Automatic annotation (TrEMBL):
Protein name per UniProt: dTDP-glucose 4,6-dehydratase
SUPFAM superfamilies: Calcium-dependent phosphotriesterase
Disordered, as annotated region: 1-28
InterPro entries: PhoX, TAT_signal
Annotated Basic and acidic residues bias: 1-11
Source organism phylogeny: Bacteria, Pseudomonadati, Pseudomonadota, Alphaproteobacteria, Hyphomicrobiales
């Protein structure tokens, strides 16, 4: 997002999560904005949902507009009274629904877990408690039940200024107030490391309300120190060997786990995203990884882990970053199992790994690289999913083909295989094996001429209508000379949603078609060029699409990241978006988060009677709804959600939304 706040009120970990650093894609590959503009300017007019814009509401007979509104409203797949957009320190849900906090940062997960005490935190306690900044949420049924299962949750990153008392000081320099953060102690860094990773916890619905089962036999915390195995083509390669692991097969921990997925065979996959922020120090002069790390923005040094642990210091362990940026698979049925980093799926800033079983039984995973001007990928397993033999699926993710998307002006998309020896992926370009190609996935995609996207995040295949939805959050680095009346805007703050239709409905296809489902932003501002239907209300539009979900009826739900007082005049939230018929491109607000928070998840239980959402980094940022530019930190928070107790800090939490009286959501 475009950061409207003074840098003096922003904290380094917050800026890392927004990923608003300099563009690091060095290629002249075409951007998605260039392609959309060329495609639709060549047509001379926009069809279908793209023809609907804010300008359309100001021209033409009012009767026609009213008729269009009525048709769209009548054809909507969503039946609920819309929530009013706004900003305050609480969460809000549509009328007729309950939104109950299920899990908070620090909540005990085991029978012997200590209660949360924010003034006496320790790594040992945190490793037995719910972690920080919950992001992806998944559900794995126990015995096929929609009311008893395992909740799997990623803990993406930490905000020490919100977590720890006494580390922030406000000083005045040149007439401006500035927030300064004291260096963290080793003990505080250890708490951070334990607060990263993921949670697996048994939950049960009783009397219409969800409860945590603290003595669940499969409950587990995964952290930045959990032992993991590298598997697939990169395992054992010289470029992943370190002093601590000369074999190149054993990694300790995972971090910056953003979105993720649950596989058809019931395992939990975690996507490692902004890994660059955890490394500091300098590579030895002339080191062969210099270009590789530059392409990923390593080292960024937002975290202080390198001051206490050699493996995060490039001068001491130059290969360590190559061991991160992967997809991690966890067997939830065995809390003692070793998670595996599945290197065949590529190394980049992964946002999610949602999957679908194709017609021939192979499994397709869609993967976004969350950086401005980076790419959209999909991975197709070599083997087929066996629903009757769990063990047969154990290593499906170690063999397959990774592809990167190249979008064309004629509305087609090519999925280009990223395979050593094919095209430019040869020794002449510095690749010695498939392992090299995967370690440098971004550079391989550069050479293949992939399309530079506007920060691709969650990508969701829809098994009901056969489409694939790509969330493009924004691109504040887009220049004015790329603007076209039909699409992407200079400093594209509001993002897009792309809809892909794979050839013949085959998700393994190497060709497909694409369309813009939505250009986001306020449709009342003509210059924004948003394309919501005219039936979308002032509460229904949104910007910065990030995570998404498709419920069992095939309906699309979109969560946002980056809205706020100055950017949009509303907090982030969850919107229901119609994708079919007369209601296509109509959006309705269902849930919104407190000030400073991002909307993560979302996830629908198998019976669609619960929506789980993750409220991440509430109270973060340098603005509140009463006055802009104020830093928010432990002692002076913009909200104390969800406890609202003076002795408790703000706490990222998972919320369970249910319909009052029971029943399916939005039906």
């Amino acid at each position: 997002m475009t950061d409207h706040r003074s840098p003096d009120t922003r904290f380094r970990t917050s800026l890392l999560e927004e990923n608003d650093g300099p563009a690091i894609n060095p290629t002249d590959n075409r951007t998605m904005g260039d392609i959309i503009a060329a495609r639709f300017s060549r047509r001379g007019f926009l069809k279908g949902s793209l023809a609907v814009s804010a300008i359309a509401a100001t021209v033409g007979p009012l009767a026609m507009i009213a008729a269009d509104d009525a048709r769209a409203a009548e054809g909507s797949a969503f039946k609920f009274d819309e929530l009013e957009a706004g900003i305050d320190d609480k969460h809000h849900v549509a009328p007729g629904y309950d939104a109950d906090v299920l899990l908070r940062w620090g909540d005990p997960l085991f029978a012997d877990s200590p209660e949360f005490d924010p003034t006496k935190q320790s790594a040992e306690a945190q490793a037995r408690q719910f972690g920080y900044n919950n992001d992806y949420v998944g559900y794995i049924a126990i015995d096929g039940s929609a009311e008893h299962g395992l909740l799997v949750v990623n803990h993406e990153y930490t905000n020490p200024h919100l977590m720890f008392p006494g580390i922030v000081s406000i000083v005045e320099k040149d007439g401006k107030k500035k927030a300064e953060v004291a260096p963290l102690s080793k003990e505080q860094v250890d708490v951070e490391m334990a607060a990263h990773g993921g949670t697996i916890v048994e939950i049960r619905k009783e009397g219409g309300k969800w409860q945590v089962v603290r003595d669940g036999k499969r409950n587990r915390r995964i952290t930045s120190t959990t032992e993991m195995a590298l598997s697939g083509p990169v395992a054992g390669h010289d470029r992943v060997k370190t002093n601590a692991d000369p074999s190149g097969t054993k990694v300790f921990g995972t971090f910056n786990n953003c979105a993720g997925g649950v596989t058809p065979w019931g395992t939990y996959v975690m996507a490692e995203e902004n890994i660059h922020g955890y490394f500091s120090g300098e590579l030895p002069e002339g080191h062969k990884e210099a270009a590789n790390y530059k392409r990923l923005g390593i080292p960024e040094g937002a975290y202080e882990w390198g001051a206490h642990y050699d493996r995060f210091n490039l001068a001491k362990e130059p290969n360590e970053p190559n061991r991160f940026g992967w997809i991690v698979e966890v067997d939830v049925n065995d809390p003692n199992s070793t998670p595996r980093k599945r290197t065949a799926m590529g190394r980049f800033k992964h946002e999610g790994a949602e999957s679908i079983v194709a017609k021939d039984g192979r499994v397709v995973f869609y993967l976004g690289d969350d950086e401005r001007f980076d790419y959209v990928y999909k991975f197709v397993t070599k083997g087929a999913f066996n629903a009757n033999d769990h063990a047969a699926n154990k290593d499906l993710l170690d063999e397959g083909t990774l592809h990167v998307a190249k979008f064309a002006e004629d509305g087609t998309v090519d999925w280009l295989p990223i395979v050593f020896g094919q095209g430019p992926l040869t020794a002449e370009n510095g690749f010695g094996s498939q392992a090299d190609v995967l370690i440098e996935t971004r550079r391989a995609a550069d050479l293949l001429g992939a399309t530079k996207m506007d920060r691709p995040e969650d990508i969701q295949p829809n098994g009901v209508n056969g489409k694939v939805y790509v969330m493009l959050t924004n691109n504040s680095k887009r220049k004015a000379d790329q603007v076209d009346a039909a699409n992407p805007r200079a400093e594209n703050a509001f993002g897009h949603i792309i809809e892909i239709t794979e050839t013949n409905g085959d998700f393994t296809a190497t060709k497909g078609k694409w369309e813009v489902l939505l250009k986001c932003g306020d449709p009342a501002v003509a210059d924004v060029g948003a394309t919501f239907s005219t039936a979308t209300t002032a509460n229904g539009w949104f910007g910065m699409p990030d995570n998404c979900a498709v419920d069992s009826a095939g309906r699309l739900w979109v969560a946002t990241d980056g809205q706020g007082p100055k950017a949009t005049g509303r907090t982030d939230g969850l919107w229901a978006v119609d994708t079919e018929g007369a209601a296509r491109a109509t959006s309705k607000l269902f849930f919104r988060v407190p000030i400073g928070a991002e909307m993560c998840g979302p996830l629908f239980a198998p019976d669609d009677q619960t929506a789980f959402v993750a409220v991440q980094h509430p109270g973060d940022g340098g603005e509140d709804w009463e006055g802009f530019g104020r830093p928010s930190y432990y002692e002076d928070l913009s909200t104390r959600w969800p406890d609202f107790k003076p002795e408790m800090p703000v706490r990222p939490s998972v919320v369970a939304i249910t319909k009052q009286g029971g029943g399916k959501i939005a039906v």
